[in-house]
Design brief:
This protein has 134 residues and is of the alpha+beta class. The protein has a single domain, classed as Cytidine Deaminase, domain 2 (3-Layer(aba) Sandwich). It has a 5-stranded mixed beta sheet. Strand 1 and strand 2 form a beta hairpin. The longest helix has 12 residues.
C-alpha cells in the first residue's frame, strides 16, 4: 500500500498547515496530515497555550479534525518539522494514533530540508494500550 500513498501531497499539506501553528512559547511549529481510506486528507498544526498542559500537537489536532469530519480508516500520517533530523511523534500522539489506526499505519516525518524518517506505528508504540484491554 505504501506505493499508493501520495506522500508528496501529504507533506505539502503538512507544510502548508505548519505555517498556521500557534507556537508563541516553544517557537516549534509542526504540521501533520492524515490520509484516510476515502482519499481525503486532514491536516493539523500544533496549538500552544500559556498553561502548557493545554497545548495540543499537530498530529492530535489532525486526528481530532478527522473525527469531527466523520472520517474513518486513517491509512498514513505525515509530519513536517524544522529540526536537523526528522522528529517522530510524541508519546501522546502515538497513543491517539493507536486509538484510530492499526499498528501497521505508516508514519513519516520530514524536515524542511527534505530529510525523512519512516516508521510504522507499531515501531513507534510497540505495546499500545488499546480497547482490547478494556
Amino acid at each position: 500500500m505504501a506505493e499508493e500513498i501520495p506522500w508528496e501531497r501529504l507533506f505539502e499539506e503538512a507544510l502548508r498547515v505548519r505555517q498556521r501553528a500557534h507556537v508563541p512559547y516553544s517557537k516549534f511549529p509542526v504540521g501533520a496530515a492524515v490520509l484516510y481510506a476515502d482519499g481525503s486528507v486532514v491536516a493539523g498544526c500544533n496549538v500552544e497555550n500559556a498553561t502548557y498542559g493545554l497545548t495540543v500537537c499537530a498530529e492530535r489536532n489532525a486526528f481530532a479534525v478527522g473525527v469531527a469530519q466523520g472520517r474513518e480508516k486513517p491509512v498514513a500520517v505525515a509530519v513536517v518539522v524544522d529540526t536537523p533530523e526528522p522528529c517522530p511523534p510524541c508519546g501522546m500522539c502515538r497513543q491517539v494514533m493507536a486509538e484510530f489506526a492499526g499498528p501497521d499505519i505508516p508514519v513519516r516525518s520530514r524536515t524542511l530540508n527534505g530529510q525523512e524518517a519512516r516508521y510504522s506505528l507499531s515501531e513507534l508504540l510497540p505495546h499500545a494500550f488499546t480497547r482490547s484491554f478494556l
